[in-house]
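Field reference: sequence -> structure
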Amino acid sequence: MHENEHKHEQTPGHHDDPSPTSTPTPTPTPTPRRQPAERLLPVDHSFLHVATLAHATEHARLVPVLEQAVEHALATRRPFPHTMLTGGSDTSKRVLSHAIAADMAVPLTELDLSAMRSPDQLHERLQALEAGAIVLASAGEQALHGPLPDLVSAANSGRCVLRSIPGARYERFTVLLCTRERMDAMLGGRDMFGQRFYFQRTAESEAIRLRRVLRRAGATCSDEAIAALAEGVLTMRLPTVGTAAAVTALLRRRGITEFDMTQLDEECWKTLMVMADPRWLRTLAKRDRRKAQAATPAAAPQSPPQPPRASEGGGLANAA
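Structure field:
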């Protein structure tokens, strides 16, 4: 008995349970949770696009007019009417064009007319169009004596722009012409646009665009901060997407996703000013100096020193 007890004490790892000892399962290493700022998506131009015209709230007054044109085209089974969209950059001309195509349920093809070097290039693009397609043509004012007349002719008649291919025709399509300048007088007899809309970039519309892009990137925005940012963007003439990308990168560096007034600090404005045109910044600086000078009250002019006045006794008054 004592012998067995002695053996039991000297046998390491011996247990009363006769079952074999199982190898312990290693504990899996937990996957580190991503910080909220790491979930912010890289900003893309597609973040500006909307699903339908009803979502283009930056042009709330124009949307019902375009929706009515869409409804009429669908009811009469006709293509959307040729339309000219005129306005500066970042006025949602492309956003509206994509929304029109979505509501019409037709494909949209983008054409940069300034990049068209020959009728062959235009013919290649038009030949691939489906019936009822929308052609979003940009830089129209730069192509007035180039591909634009051919595009207008093809849209009106369906005839091929290449004389070397007689009898060839294109499918019927719609032209949405985006320009930065008014071209009513320039087009002359080639004017086929039954609808013309003119856009202006405002602080209200810019705030809507900035909020849309930042939210799709994963950031939350306060109304006050978005309004202040939109005012600064308009003042410095900054691009919407570029501004949103810079703000998103700043939030990611700071490890946060909330964009409020505390984020509109000196570092933020310096980051944004890099994108501005230096010539325009100099113009703004001169304007601010003129405003400051106009606001400063002019100092009272000092009267010139008067010569010494003779006293009644013939001497100099106030003489020592």
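Note: Residues 42 and 249 are 8 Å apart (CA to CA).
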